[in-house]
Amino acid sequence: MSRSNSVPSTPFEAHITDLSHDGRGVARIDGKTVFVSGGLLGEQVLARLRKRHRHFDEADVVEVIVPSPHRVEPRCRHFAHCSGCSLQHLDAESQIAAKQRVLSENFERIGKVSPQLWLPPLTGEPWGYRRKGRLSVRNVMKKGRVLVGFREEQNPRFVAEIQQCEVMHPALGPKVGLLADLLSGMDAVDTIPQIEFAAGDELMALVFRHMQPLSERDLAALTAFGQQHGLAIYLQPGGNSSVHPLWPENPRLAFRIASGDAAVADVELEFQPLDFVQVNADMNQRMMARTLELLDPQPTDRVLDLFCGLGNFTLPIARRVADVVGVEGEHGLVERAAQNAARNGIENARFHVANLFEDQRAADWARQPWDKLLLDPPRAGADKVLEYLPHKQTHRIVYVSCHPASLARDAGILVNQHGFKLKSAGVMDMFPHTAHVESIALFER
């Protein structure tokens, strides 16, 4: 392959020797790594270079010469150009195996640790699972139409035009094209950049971000759309605090977490449409069951739940222990967590607002003795917390992770600096057909 700065258009053959962390095939051409979108491990493909970089190149599959035995036909007709999913062409078992391999390699390479036991992967329904997300909107004059969808796979600056989404919640997935039709007839078509969606157990909400005030005609069109399709319509004229319902007047978003124990009551959590909730409701339920199994809450336990959000873990734990405290950085989430506790009749759960990426060792909750600790941090992980926690009284930690590299780093800290053992770990397929790796780990000392 030429080494000039220009990108040659002539396709070249490549043998895919690995899958990258984002689901692309990995090949070596003239000693240089090439990430090949659409290529699977073991395949011989014809690819075309898309972009050069100093240490690697990017390419796209033009033709599969020798397919992988694990290649399947993507279910979604938009798969080739939509970035919403990257692994629909790989069978379900191989998707899970790839995610387990990523987690294992991160433990070994970054944390220098390995679990004593690998947990069986948690899996669920792979279609229609996504209950939360953001759709981009663009009125493209050259194409003469409005595009509504996720970003394009090959060029994230552009919006992929989609008519339906196979992984989106069924209340909205088949209707994405109808949103484009709706917007194309609105006065504000050029000033609505995005639509966020969020579904509770009984209601799907759409939040329309608009940069200019909406006309009466547009408000009527949005209301009619919501009424026709049974969707709650929210407007967002500014920041997150500006979100308010258009129709109905008082929509209620909520989801229930079943206890799985006849002696323990279920928990129901109300939320606002821009609040963080787990994207996959079915997997959230399965994850909760595994978390409780690993945490093994006892009636005398005192538990600290860090990065608690709405109380997704805190409140089910509270049903089983003496005392639980949840800590979260976003004031609105903490407020709603406390409201959810009261609504569920839970009196042994308390909540605090604190930036957990800053030193909180002087906080009252950080100085108290805790038997068990639950961590569910964002992608950055919990290394700042681990500078002052856990205390010596803490003998069990369950760590729920959305990023294997930060989990591996923090596992190394817990094992090498705090004297814990990595008893078990495993992946949870929260985002089927994507390369996203959600995982859980148990630490004991």
TrEMBL record:
Active site (catalytic residues): C402, C402 (nucleophile)
Protein residues bound to S-adenosyl-L-methionine: Q278, F307, N312, E328, N355, D376
InterPro entries associated with the record: 23S_rRNA_MeTrfase_RlmD, MeTrfase_TrmA_AS, MeTrfase_TrmA_CS, NA-bd_OB-fold, SAM-dependent_MTases_sf, TRAM_dom, U5_MeTrfase_fam
GO molecular function: methyltransferase activity
Catalysed conversion reaction: uridine(1939) in 23S rRNA + S-adenosyl-L-methionine = 5-methyluridine(1939) in 23S rRNA + S-adenosyl-L-homocysteine + H(+)
Entry keyword set: 4Fe-4S, Iron, Iron-sulfur, Metal-binding, Methyltransferase, rRNA processing, S-adenosyl-L-methionine, Transferase
Family annotation (Pfam families): TRAM (PF01938), tRNA_U5-meth_tr (PF05958)
Protein name per its UniProtKB record: 23S rRNA (uracil(1939)-C(5))-methyltransferase RlmD
Organism: Rhodanobacter terrae
